[in-house]
């Protein structure tokens, strides 16, 4: 008979193989808002390219300590970081 501990260990290992999680969690204060803010700035830069000012977005993350998190799908949250077409000509 297979020991119960061995069965439990095999179940835990097999379940762990399918779980992929990478939360940005700060042990002292909850979610790491700086990391989330910077990642969203990078994601918006990939999405909008030269029309998005990622450096200014990252500077805002530092200034406001990650309190204002940009959302690439919400134009009002990223409007300050978007360049107009006339500026790029």
From TrEMBL:
Signal peptide residues on this chain, from the entry's feature table: 1-21
Record-level Gene Ontology MF annotations: ecdysis-triggering hormone activity
Single Gene Ontology BP annotation: neuropeptide signaling pathway
Pfam families reported in the protein's UniProt record: Eclosion (PF04736)
Phosphoprotein in keyword set: no
Keywords: Signal
Protein name: AGAP010437-PA-like protein
Organism: Anopheles sinensis (Mosquito)
């Amino acid at each position: 008979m297979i020991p119960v501990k061995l069965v439990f260990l095999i179940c835990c290992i097999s379940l762990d193989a399918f779980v992929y999680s990478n939360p940005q969690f700060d042990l002292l204060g909850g979610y790491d808002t700086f990391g989330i803010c910077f990642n969203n700035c990078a994601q918006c830069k990939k999405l909008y390219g030269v029309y998005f000012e990622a450096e200014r977005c990252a500077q805002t993350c530092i200034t406001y300590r990650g309190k204002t998190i940009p959302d690439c799908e919400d134009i009002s949250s990223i409007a300050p970081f978007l360049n107009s077409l006339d500026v790029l000509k």
